[in-house]
Amino acid sequence: MHTRWYLLVSVSIVPTSIMSSIHMVTVSAPTNIAVIKYWGKDADGAALHIPLNSSVSVTLDTNDLCAITTVATSPSFTEDKLWLNGELDEGASTNRRFRACVDGMKAMAQEVVDSEGKVIIRKEDWPNLKIHVSSYNTFPTAAGLASSAAGYAALVFALGKLMNAPEDYSAWSTLARQGSGSACRSLFGGFVAWRKGSVDEPMTSRAEQVADETHWPEMRALILVVSDKKKDTSSTSGMATSVKTSPLLAHRAKEIVAARMELMEQAWLTKDFAAFGELTMKDSNQFHATCLDTYPPIFYLNGTSQQIIRLVHVYNEWAGAVRAAYTFDAGPNAVLYVLEKDVVEVGALMLHYFPEFGEKYINRSDFADKAKAYELPADLVAACDQVGRVPQAGDVQSFYLTQAGAGPQVLSDICNLDATTGENCYKP
Ligand code: DP6
Fold first, then answer.
1. Number of other residues whose CB lies within 10 A of the CB of residue 179
2. Ligand 1 centre from 238 Cα, in Å?
3. Phi-psi region of 298 (alpha: psi -120 to 50; beta: other; left: phi over 0)
4. Residue 126 Cβ < 6 Å to ligand 1
5. Structure-derived torsion over alpha carbons of residues 313, 317, 320, 321, reported in degrees to the nearest 10
6. Pairing state between β 191-195 and 87-88
7. Is the CB of 238 under 6 A from ligand 1?
8. How far apart are CA 145 and CA 329, in angstroms?
9. Is the C-beta atom of 329 inside 6 A of ligand 1?
10. pTM of the model
């Protein structure tokens, strides 16, 4: 295989070094934040990440938060290698999740041709080729902001493009699912459902788009990063304990989620913010209730998260309508879904109680200027003061304003791997 590759490189008049035959692709992939949460794997399908219940999420704009991943292959590579945020991950090549994505995509891989139509990789070469991967996130890793979702979606999408696999993103989502369950939803933009499928037919557990990112253009997500530290209980171990010990989780999966999925998809399709918002908050609360019902209990929310929850309820009561909806994943960070018309007011309210702290506190300067200049109605502040929150900097680390966005994209202007050596060249 080496010789054949070498010949091809010579024919296409690329410098004669074998290293110049590196074939690589760079992509971006989004995070997603669930509004009907995935929590718990079916005991018989745990290794394949077959969930107890279906879930649905909003894919967020990669311009604000994303994973950027380069994958490469060359006959000169002697082992699979993975760098995360610039650091070599020694155990990666044997990691079950990484292997499921790489080997699963190799099974879908096709012949690759160059821009002149010359075959540079034959289909039968793929099983023996090694893969290098370098990936980083543009936001805090493992802080409950779906970094693993973006990371595995990026890995699978990049591999699919590298290997010229048939572009069936729903099939690709079954591989991302085996990386991290929630990652399957990041293969699509907009509003995305993960249908739980069945343990007997794992390929039926896959994501599909309910509506694309242009469907509800007024929707915004305001993220309050309460902690950018790695969480103490990973989703994987937390949900395993919940499955074993929480009767509430079993009840939720069996009796509650299916009806909620229908209502939620309907609310999104009809752009009914009140229905969407109320269900989003109730589902987040139920997920955290199952964490508390787990034995020993898991606490992802902290005092700051609880204050944000209370402020949102007082705000909605003051407004006489659901104008803001919170949701929390496996960490204390809040994601507030808000329509564009209310986002400056909600931003100003949160900024009042969680004042600016450190540089680049808010990701978008135009929004920061408007939120800082906004005069909050005195009766709103008086009502919110009842929550007992005394404005003080430091409890929130940063704000990100974003919106629904597209699925993964191929990037032509960035590369995390050196084009001549295939080694990592990304520095945090
Ligand atoms: C609370 O997808 O991270 O964010 O499948 O074990 O990798 P694994 O778990 P993961 O769990 C995400 C849980 C959640 C809810 C959600 O995204 O639906």
1. 27
2. 10
3. beta
4. no
5. 10
6. unpaired
7. no
8. 7
9. yes
10. 0.93
**Using a 6 Å cutoff on CB, does residue 235 contact ligand 1?**
yes
Ligand 1 centroid vs 410 CA: distance in angstroms? Answer: 25
Distance (Å, whole) CA 64 – CA 369? 18
How far from the centroid of its chain's Cα atoms is residue 416's Cα? 20
Pick from 202, 197, 227, 112: which is nearest to 159 by CA? 112
pLDDT tens per residue, range 343-352: 999 999 999 9
CA distance 306 to 301: 7
Tell me the two tokens of residue 336.
Answer: 């507030």
Is 246 touching ligand 1 by the criterion CB < 6 Å? Answer: no
> 120, 8 in Cβ contact below 8 A?
yes
**Does 181 contact ligand 1 (Cβ within 6 A)?**
yes
Give the chain's end-to-end CA distance (angstroms, integer): 36
Whole-angstrom Cα distance, residue 358 to residue 352?
Answer: 15
Q: Match 């139509």 to its residue by tokens.
A: 117
Instruction: Tell me phi and psi for residue 37, to 5 degrees.
Output: -85, 145
Is residue 64 lining ligand 1, measured as CB closer than 6 Å? Answer: no
Rounded CA gap, 132 and 149, in Å? 20
Are the beta carbons of 156 and 407 closer than 8 angstroms? no
55 lines ligand 1 (CB under 6 A): yes
The residue whose C-alpha atom lies closest to atom 6 belonging to ligand 1 is: 236
Amino acid at 261: M
Is residue 53 within 6 Å of ligand 1 at its C-beta?
Answer: no
pLDDT of residue 14: 34
CA of 180 to the centre of ligand 1 (A): 7
Q: Which atom of ligand 1 is nearest to the CA of 330?
A: 1
> For the segment 107-159, what is each residue's pLDDT rounded down to a tens digit?
999 999 998 999 999 999 999 999 999 999 987 664 567 679 999 999 999 99
Closest C-alpha to ligand 1, atom 3: 235
Find out whether 348 and 372 touch, Cβ atoms under 8 Å: yes
